[in-house]
């Protein structure tokens, strides 16, 4: 099975985006960052993928919507994040 991509939608100067990226980086997770600054169409597309959530960051593991920074941190606190990342790597 191919490794699924981690994608994080962000804006500049977003402390929650920085925190989420730092957590992923600390776990040595490669991710693709999609900046939605000033691009209404791209932000709308992100919101559609995220079930209507238009805040940033929005994080996806492959096709699975993880949510925002608080959701990512909660997965880490619950001890679930590492197993999700392991599943993602196939």
Structural commentary:
α1 (15-26) links the parallel β1 (6-10) and β2 (32-35). The termini are close together. A four-stranded mixed β-sheet has the order 2-1-3-4. α1 (15-26) runs parallel beside α3 (69-77). It has four helices and four strands, in the order βαβαββαα. By secondary structure, the protein is an alpha+beta fold. 44% of the residues lie in helices and 19% in strands. The longest helix has 12 residues, at 15-26.
Write the layout of secondary structure elements.
Elements: E1 6-10, H1 15-26, E2 32-35, H2 40-49, E3 58-61, E4 64-67, H3 69-77, H4 81-89
Parallel strand pairs: 1-2
Antiparallel strand pairs: 1-3, 3-4
Overview features:
single chain; 90 residues; alpha+beta; Glutaredoxin; 44% helix; globular
Give me the Rg, rounded.
12 Å
| Quaternary | single chain
Mean pLDDT: 94
- The name of the CATH topology is Glutaredoxin
Largest sheet, in brief, is: 4 strands, mixed
Number of beta strands: 4
**Annotated CATH architecture:** 3-Layer(aba) Sandwich
End-to-end span in angstroms?
A: 6 Å
Strand line-up of the largest beta sheet: 2-1-3-4
- N to C succession of SSEs: EHEHEEHH
In CATH, the homologous superfamily goes by the name Glutaredoxin
What are the segments in which pLDDT stays under 50 over at least 5 consecutive residues? none
SS content category: alpha+beta
Beta-strand percentage range = 15-25%
Quick overview of this protein structure:
By secondary structure, the protein is an alpha+beta fold. It is built from 4 helices and 4 strands.
């Amino acid at each position: 099975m191919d490794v699924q991509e981690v994608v994080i939608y962000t804006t500049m100067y977003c402390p929650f985006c920085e925190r989420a990226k730092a957590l992923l980086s600390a776990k040595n997770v490669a991710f693709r960052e999609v900046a939605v600054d000033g691009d209404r169409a791209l932000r709308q597309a992100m919101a559609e993928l995220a079930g209507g959530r238009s805040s940033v960051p929005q994080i996806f593991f492959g096709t699975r919507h993880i949510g925002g920074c608080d959701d990512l941190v909660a997965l880490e606190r619950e001890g679930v994040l590492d197993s999700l990342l392991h599943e993602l790597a196939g």
